[in-house]
Amino acid sequence: MTAAAAPHATGSSGGSAVLKAELRLFRREPGAVFWIMVFPTILLSILGSIPSFREPTDSLGGNRMVDAYVPVTVLLGLIMAGLQAMPPLITGYRERGILRRMSATPVRPSAVLGAQMSIYGTSALVSALLSLTVGRLVFDVTLPSQIFGYVLALVLAILCGLALGALISALARTTKAASAIGSAVFFPMMFSAGVWLPVQAMPDTLAHIVEFTPLGAASQALSEAAAGDWPGWTHLGVLALWAVLLSAGAARWFRWE
């Protein structure tokens, strides 16, 4: 499907046509739309329906487990986008020679990469908005009190997720390899984001280690902003550093053919 649509994009006069073509392809992939934009909210709804998750917990400072899981589901969409959806698609374009053929047209191959990052980044933002909305309307989760800090932490987290996806796309030579690498990284990222156990509920030593991972730092920064505090500069710094390092690695090793 993607291979058939790419020639249409290469015949366009600019990157905006590539973005429109890639957006049409994305809308035709119900699996990607579901896992990125819908599944995190469904997971929050399932967890929130557990009575004990709606009771205050001492280990969370009197907060409820469902309150702690909202930042987790906010991050889940970008994990799906950056690790499961984007790398196989971009690697597939390279593997089939689509990017090489585009290099001979007025539209550069970088337009495809930029379009993919825009689409998946926006999808992650929509997923986050859905989780926050359902958390507020259904489970009475307080909306982030420090909105600017929350948005900053979320944007940095999305940049980290997309940069990691771009790095996987750079290192993987085949679509199967991209899927395998993405899956291998997927579960540690899920753990560090707090999918199985929120970072705030982890033992202190483990929590301190996780806080130096991209999504562990993101989870903590989002939780702090949700509580009304400005995210810790350490957590924001860890996110910014990971975004720079992952982007640099992707730029260094990425090949168009």
TrEMBL record:
Q: Which Pfam family is one of this chain's hits?
A: ABC2_membrane
The record's subcellular location field reads:
Cell membrane; Membrane
Major localization listed first in the record, in broad terms: membrane
UniProt keyword Membrane, yes or no? yes
> InterPro entries attached here?
ABC-2_transporter, ABC2_TM, ABC2_TM_bact-type, ABC_2_transport
Database matches in PROSITE patterns:
ABC_TM2
Q: Which domain of life is it from?
A: Bacteria
- Membrane-spanning regions, if any? 32-53, 68-90, 111-135, 147-168, 180-199, 233-254
* ABC transmembrane type-2 domain sequence ranges: 31-257
Question: Which keywords does UniProt give here?
Answer: Antibiotic resistance, Cell membrane, Membrane, Transmembrane, Transmembrane helix, Transport
Q: PANTHER family given for it? A: DOXORUBICIN RESISTANCE ABC TRANSPORTER PERMEASE PROTEIN DRRC-RELATED, TRANSPORT PERMEASE PROTEIN
Q: What is this protein called?
A: Transport permease protein
**Natural source organism:** Streptomyces atriruber
